[in-house]
Amino acid sequence: CAGMAMGSWAWGQHRIAPWQGHDPMPWLEGEDQHGEVQALRAFKGKPILVNFWATWCTPCIEEMPLLNGFYQQNKAKSWQVLGLAIDQPSAVKRYLAQHPVEYPLALAGLNGTELMTVLGNVQGGLPFTLVLNPKAGLVQRKLGKLTDSDIQSWV
Question: What confidence tens digit (pLDDT) does each residue in 93-152 have?
């Protein structure tokens, strides 16, 4: 895990108003923790949980085992999980070397806070989670630490 490549995520379709889930999801793509380019549109047709986090965010770190468990239990049912780190690449690599997860992770980069705003997190807080249906429509948006009951209510 220590040698993982982390990339930055970019987006198109900039919007001034937060995304409401009625129009197409803002386009995202970037490198995951294995150095492979991932695009959010590649997950279309599958439900996905997108989680913004940082290594310095205690609630973020506390919810990662829950997210990893959810991914392990539901990936066979086509559920996807994507973690987007708003952090420095070196900090993320160090953290993942000690606490690996199975779901894809990538860096949201310096623009991650702006991206969260576009996606409806006007406060800019972490953790921030979106649940999208197979057509990339918004099902749920949560600012704050996830609980098992949150996740179970979305499945």
Answer: 899 999 999 998 888 876 788 888 888 898 989 999 999 888 778 889 999 999 999 998
Selection from 102, 85, 104 nearest residue 38 by Cα:
104
**Are 92 and 100 contacting, i.e. CB atoms less than 8 angstroms apart?**
no
Residue in 21, 27, 28, 83 with CA at minimum distance from that of residue 50: 83
Q: E strand or H helix at 92, and its extent? A: helix 89-98
DSSP labels, 22-81: SSPPPPEEEE-TBS-EEEGGGGTTS-EEEEEE-TT-HHHHHHHHHHHHHHHHHGGGT-EE
For the record, the structure tokens of 17 come out as 């108003």
